[in-house]
């Protein structure tokens, strides 16, 4: 994004491409006749081209992906059309979740015939997978897939085990008698240099520390779609996620807060990772907010004939115009960047309910689901509800900006507000967006809050910080639509009755049971049994809290990155959940 006011540059660094370095190095005469095996963060086409260049010079080279090496091995090297079964024995990780290497095999089961994959843990931590392939005619093939990792301290100082580059060079095939060592690749260096530049900067003591911290990284990168799934192996998306959460962890420590504290207000952290470059460039800068320039970047959107036909997140103007067309009492708040949080209150004779969406602005299906539900509710004169369809407009604007480059990425940098915090956990003035939620609860007197959320529709990783996303381990793989119920002390009985009634009604949503069963099956093949209760086929979890309304029902649809028909299905389910909760609350609520 181009800003009208020049910012402060923290780092402007160019790095030579590791793959080019290796080709140049092993093109020298002394390596002729040698066998080179390397792991780095490059796509199949680039790796194969480098192998061919070296082969022409008499060097037998084989380059592998350091990111998700087992999955990439099956894509690169295994003739899956003839495969009958695959048995994989994986190492037990000594740092992080013990089954981390099983998780890293996701979504291999979807690439193979149904039931063909079995995964078994080894007791050792040796960095390789043992693979046994069963082929037609009783033929069996055994393979070893290396998964190079390094021990290091992550951004919070905690020990981690992360994928890394590696070189093995031998005088004969399979040997490593000449070279066998870890290599810090260009991908890893870009990450490390960005973190170092942030750590070295003299930040002020009080939050927020900046308006916008921009991390523009251009790199070769790759996007590897996985056939038959919604998954894409993306080094750009993985780097975005790792940078964003690593910097949150750094600033949490700088502020004296514990890791994971959602009240932290560092400012807006914006990793902008772009692929297709011939080498790596890392540019970090502090930028002022420029909401007008950011909003002007958004592509014009032709409004659909109805809310139900929206197949991507609607433009803010579309949301505003929809709300303004409905007769109701208005309320709202201003954001850190000066945008409006639009609130609508419709008084009726029923028990009131507060409906919200867009708290995490990269979770977009709830925005449309809330609008669709409210559109139906308002046609009943007795309906009594408050609505905030987009609770985090600043994050939503960043999401739209980032989607111009990568519409299929999760973009967790847009999850929180321009202050960098989670609006639900904001405690002190200025309250900004939080003020609108408080007005909604005060105006309506609602004792039920239906809070529409989403989570990643494909795998979420932090490959350079232990692979599994710290604090979000349960969210790293999609597992279908599920519900979270929170209640104050003394409200457990009506809350439980609400949960059971909503799950019962959701059984009637066409396609939802099949959608959930399909995602849960793949999840359980790679992560084990689902850690939630099942009610009428809907996964649920509940806990006591003191937040906001006495009862809060939170939806979780795997919507981050989806568009088209999957997006329409997502907001259909969100809408039905709101309607089910409102209807049930009329009989259950006090």
Global morphology: globular
- Could you give me the name of the CATH homologous superfamily of the largest domain? Zn peptidases
In the sheet with the most strands, the strands line up as 17-18-20-19-21-25-22-24-23
Strand content: 25-35%
Whole-number total of structural domains: 3
Low-pLDDT windows of residues = 1-5
What are its keywords?
590 residues; alpha/beta; Aminopeptidase; 3 domains; four-stranded mixed β-sheet; 15 helices; 25 strands; globular
Question: Can you walk me through this structure?
Answer:
With 590 residues, the protein is α/β, with parallel strands linked by helices. It folds into 3 domains: 8-13 and 189-289; 16-184, no CATH class; 321-459 and 479-588, Aminopeptidase (3-Layer(aba) Sandwich), CATH 3.40.630.10. The chain is built from 15 helices and 25 strands. The chain has helices spanning 18-26, 44-55, 69-77, 100-103, 108-111, 186-200, 235-255, 291-297, 316-324, 365-377, 393-403, 433-444, 492-506, 512-527, 565-588, and strands at residues 8-15, 35-40, 60-65, 85-90, 117-121, 128-134, 140-146, 149-153, 159-163, 165-170, 179-183, 212-219, 223-225, 232-234, 268-275, 280-287, 329-334, 340-346, 353-357, 385-388, 448-456, 482-487, 533-535, 538-544, 551-560. A 9-stranded mixed β-sheet has the order 17-18-20-19-21-25-22-24-23, with helices on both faces. A 4-stranded mixed β-sheet has the order 1-16-12-15, with helices on one face. Strand 8 (149-153) and strand 9 form a beta hairpin. Helix 8 (291-297) crosses helix 11 (393-403), helix 10 crosses helix 15 (565-588) and helix 13 (492-506) packs across helix 15 (565-588). The longest helix is centred in the last third of the chain and has 24 residues, at 565-588. The protein is globular. The two termini are 51 Å apart.
């Amino acid at each position: 994004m181009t800003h009208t006011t020049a910012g402060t540059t923290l780092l402007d660094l160019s790095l030579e491409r590791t793959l080019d370095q290796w080709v140049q190095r092993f093109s020298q005469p002394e390596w002729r006749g040698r066998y080179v095996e390397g792991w780095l963060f490059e796509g199949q086409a680039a790796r194969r081209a480098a192998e061919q260049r070296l082969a022409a010079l008499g060097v037998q080279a084989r380059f592998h992906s350091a990111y998700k090496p087992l999955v990439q091995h099956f894509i690169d090297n295994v003739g899956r059309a003839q495969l009958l079964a695959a048995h994989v024995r994986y190492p037990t990780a000594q740092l992080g979740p013990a089954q981390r290497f099983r998780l890293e095999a996701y979504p291999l089961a979807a690439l193979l015939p149904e039931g063909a994959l079995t995964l078994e843990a080894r007791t050792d931590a040796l960095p390789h997978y043992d693979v046994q392939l069963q082929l037609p005619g009783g033929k069996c093939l055994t393979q070893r897939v290396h998964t190079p990792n390094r021990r290091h301290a992550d951004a919070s100082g905690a020990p981690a085990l992360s994928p890394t580059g590696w070189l093995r060079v031998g005088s004969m095939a399979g040997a490593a008698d000449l070279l066998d060592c870890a290599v810090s690749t260009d991908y890893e260096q870009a990450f490390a240099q960005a973190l170092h530049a942030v750590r070295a900067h003299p930040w002020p003591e009080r939050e927020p520390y900046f308006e916008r911290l921009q991390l523009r990284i251009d790199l070769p990168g790759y996007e590897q779609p996985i056939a038959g799934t919604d998954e894409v192996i993306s080094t750009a998306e993985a780097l975005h996620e790792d940078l964003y959460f690593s910097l949150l962890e750094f600033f949490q420590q700088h502020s004296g807060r514990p890791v994971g504290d959602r009240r932290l207000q560092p400012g807006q952290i914006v990793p902008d990772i772009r692929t297709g470059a011939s080498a790596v460039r890392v540019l970090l800068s502090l930028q002022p907010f420029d909401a007008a320039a950011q909003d002007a970047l958004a592509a014009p959107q032709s409004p659909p004939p109805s809310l139900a036909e929206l197949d991507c997140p609607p433009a803010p103007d579309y949301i505003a115009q929809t709300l303004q067309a409905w007769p109701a009492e208005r309320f709202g708040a201003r954001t850190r960047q000066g945008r409006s949080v639009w609130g609508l209150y419709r008084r009726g004779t029923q028990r009131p309910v507060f409906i919200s969406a867009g708290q995490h602005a990269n979770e977009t299906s709830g925005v449309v689901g809330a609008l669709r539900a409210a559109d139906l509710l308002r046609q009943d004169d007795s309906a009594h509800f408050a609505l905030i369809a987009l609770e985090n407009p600043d994050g939503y604007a960043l999401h739209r900006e980032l989607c111009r480059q990568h519409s299929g990425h999760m973009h967790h940098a847009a999850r929180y507000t321009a202050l960098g915090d989670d609006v639900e956990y904001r405690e002190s003035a200025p309250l900004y967006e939080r003020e609108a939620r408080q007005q909604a609860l005060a105006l309506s007197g609602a004792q039920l809050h239906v809070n529409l959320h989403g989570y990643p529709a494909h795998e979420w990783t932090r490959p350079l910080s232990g692979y599994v996303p710290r604090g979000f381990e349960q969210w790293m793989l999609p597992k279908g639509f599920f519900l979270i119920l929170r209640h104050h002390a003394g409200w457990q009985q009506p809350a439980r009755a609400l949960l059971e009634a909503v799950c019962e009604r959701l059984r009637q949503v066409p396609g939802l049971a099949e959608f959930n069963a399909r995602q849960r099956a793949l999840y359980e093949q790679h992560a084990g049994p689902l850690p939630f209760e099942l009610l009428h086929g809907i996964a649920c979890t509940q806990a006591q809290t003191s937040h906001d309304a006495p009862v809060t029902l939170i939806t979780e649809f795997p919507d981050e990155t989806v568009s088209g028909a999957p997006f329409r299905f997502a907001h259909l389910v969100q809408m039905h959940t709101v309607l089910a909760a409102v209807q049930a609350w009329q009989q259950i609520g006090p």
